[in-house]
Design goal:
172 residues, CF(0), 90% helix, mainly alpha
């Protein structure tokens, strides 16, 4: 401020600062007259509007991403629930199939045991029949031999003929 009170400051020939001040004031006046502040303000407003639109777009994208994340979490929960249901159903089917297989196995074992018992009974009956037949055949042969020996000594014996007829009836 002291320079304004200096008497040499107002001397046009020697004061360069005065001319710089005047030039600066003229330049500022031209800048204002041309509308540079309005252009700068408009450019700043445009930039602010662009930034605001980008922020709005980012907020919209974030909301959309959060909605998608919520949807994915819901789908994941549904898929997990469905998988749990499928697993439970599979376990139930496995238990049911196991029970059915046990029942079928027990039935098959019972049938095989009954079949084996029938075969054993048949084999026993057949063996008994064969033993009886062999015993009867052996008894008949022995009786025949005894009778043949007696007959050789006597021509006809009515008691012997009756016994032979009874043996024939009993063997059949």
């Amino acid at each position: 401020m002291n320079m304004f009170f200096d008497p040499h400051f107002w001397d046009v020939k020697t004061s360069a600062e005065l001319w710089v001040l005047v030039g600066l004031l003229i330049f500022i006046g031209i800048v204002i007259a041309v509308g540079v502040p309005k252009m700068v303000a408009k450019a700043l407003d445009d930039k602010a509007a662009k930034i605001q639109s980008e922020l709005d777009e980012a907020a919209r994208l974030r909301a959309e991403a959060e909605a998608m994340l919520a949807q994915i979490r819901l789908e994941k929960a549904e898929a997990e629930a469905q998988a749990a249901e499928m697993l439970a159903a599979a376990e139930a089917d496995a238990r049911r199939l196991e029970a059915e297989a046990k029942v079928r196995l027990e039935e098959a074992l019972t049938r095989r045991q009954a079949l084996a018992e029938r075969r054993i009974a048949q084999a026993e009956a057949q063996a008994t029949t064969e033993v009886k037949a062999a015993a009867a055949e052996l008894a008949a042969k022995a009786a025949e031999d005894i009778l043949a020996a007696r007959l050789a000594g006597a021509k006809s014996d009515p008691m012997l003929d009756a016994a032979i007829a009874q043996i024939g009836d009993k063997l059949n």
